[in-house]
Amino acid sequence: xxxxxxxxxxxxxxxxxxxxxxxxxxxxxxxxxxxxxxxxxxxxxxxxxxxxxxxxxxxxxxxxxxxxxxxxxxxxxxxxxxxxxxxxxxxxxxxxxxxxxxxxxxx
Length: 107
Description:
mainly alpha; 4 helices; flat
């Protein structure tokens, strides 16, 4: 019974994934000309990435304080034009430093 439910879930997920990817091609025959819809669709990938990434950033260390400190560091460095490797290394360094400070303070 449990295996059958797993196969059912997999089938439903496969069908929904197929539908989401296929239906726009089948339903839309002409190019989108509405500026609002084009603008909305332009930002969908960025919003989706942010929605998946930000909760993981905050919760990955097990402490929201550490995640938020690293996130603020990353946003600040990226905003000022630093390279990706600089941002990544700095975020890791800040996360380690905050965890060490918390450990030293007894939290």
